[in-house]
Amino acid sequence: MEALKGVKILDMTHVQSGPTCTQLLAWFGADVVKVERPGVGDATRGQLRDVPKADSLYFTMLNSNKRSITLNPKNPDGAKIFTSLIEQCDVMVENFAPGALDRMGFSWEKIQEINPRMIYASVKGFGPGAYEDCKVYENVAQCAGGSASTTGMLGEVPTVTGAQIGDSGTGLHLALGIVTALFHREKSGKGQRVSAAMQDGVLNLCRVKLRDQQRLSHGPLKEYSQFGQGIPFGEATPRAGNDSGGGQPGRILKCKGWDTDPDAYTYFITQAAVWKNICEVIGKPEWIEDEKFLTPEARLPHLNEIFETIEAWTMTKTKFEVMDICNPLNIPVGPILSMKELANEQSLRETGTIVEVDHPERGKYLTVGNPIKLSDSPAVVKRSPLLGEHTEEVIKEFCNMSDEEIKSLRDSGAI
Ligand code: CAO
Fold this sequence. Notes:
This protein has 18 helices and eleven strands. The longest helix has 21 residues.
């Protein structure tokens, strides 16, 4: 049984952050009706196209399990349909630039008037304050939320990450806000506003870096490589390259084939609990009793020497051999997997995390399925809808209109 079966979502989202959120809710079984501008649709349908005239992978990978209708709420007839959808839906989600919904004539006050049980959820770039009116895209959020200043190599430019923590990360935050508000509505009978700002979402994911900012006032960050290299710390949390973000030092190390394969690397963590195993496996049993390496604290100034020695060993093995040897010894390591390797990873196919879907315009494509697994409510990924594929079906269902009435809506440009 689908966990969110019966929950109706009026989906006004576009691009990435909002669509990630509503896609998750759709996977959990909610009926997500995506509203798109007549004749235009979500801009991502046509962005980064790989197959001529077909919906792009950008769109298809963010909008599975949804229905699509075209509707212009700025048109008077469109506004009536939109009002009817607000009356009957449980949740409305949007991530337009600030003020766009108000300009359509549907402020939060008006929405509450139409349906006091409505949960109205928004993603914006910034929360209330100096930047609240700004438009924001992924990398702006990564920069404004503290990720870019703490990512990259020491002494080099701030760097954005491949993980879309601003868009998809905030979409995840918003989805949690929505289900929380739905849970609250069970008791209170009332809807509420749910807001997630991308800057806040990124900062939430970077909280360990704000931790380090405060630790800096009490002395150098000894687990950072720059400590062992004798490089003084400045006033702000520095970029830490590939240092581990936690209390167990780790680094990315070369493996066999690194000179020709850009992904022949492993992440290697020198977890204190298995230090003895590490010394033995890399052929340094004498380190076990050596004063210099006896405690985690004693090892901190020598991390460069330690990792250089471990790397001399990992370079004699492939990244998968390192995994096979270290795992039975409880040493935490992980191969650097390329997207090509992930796309072909059998275990991810078996769990439904990577799914192949068929699409009428583009044929078969891969998408990432629901990473959150519920034991009694498995998510079945269905292809994304074509623009307006469900317009008539949804209008008949929600507004009980005849074919004739629907035709006149089309003629007036409302749908
Ligand atoms: N019918 C008629 N008009 C519609 C419509 C529909 N179904 N759907 C949207 N529109 C209109 C909106 O009313 C708005 O018009 P006005 O500006 O005249 O009021 C217009 O389309 C475009 O909205 P927008 O300003 O949100 O779009 P944009 O492409 O200029 O900006 C973005 C995109 C993402 C920068 C902006 O929406 C934004 O900052 N959103 C909040 C933060 C966010 O989610 N960012 C992540 C995006 S993913 O990288």
